[in-house]
Amino acid sequence: MAGGGAERQLTYLASPLIAVGHDVHVALLHEGTHLAALRASGAVVHQIDSRGNYDPRLSMRLLKLMRSVKPAVVQTWLTQMDVAGGMAARIAGVPWIVSERSSALAYPRGLKNFMRVTTARGASAIVANSQGGLDYWRSRAKPRTLRRLIRNAVPVADVEAAAPADPATLGLDPWKPLIVFIGRFSAEKNVGKLIDALSIVLPRHDAVAVICGDGPLRDDAHARAATLVAARRVAFAGFATDAWSWVRRANVFVSVSTFEGNPNAVAEAMAAGCAVVVSEIPAHREFLDGDSALFVDASSAESIADGLSRALTEVDESRRRAKVARAIAAQWTAPNIARQYAAVYEEVAR
Question: How far is CA 128 from the centre of its chain?
Answer without folding.
Answer: 12
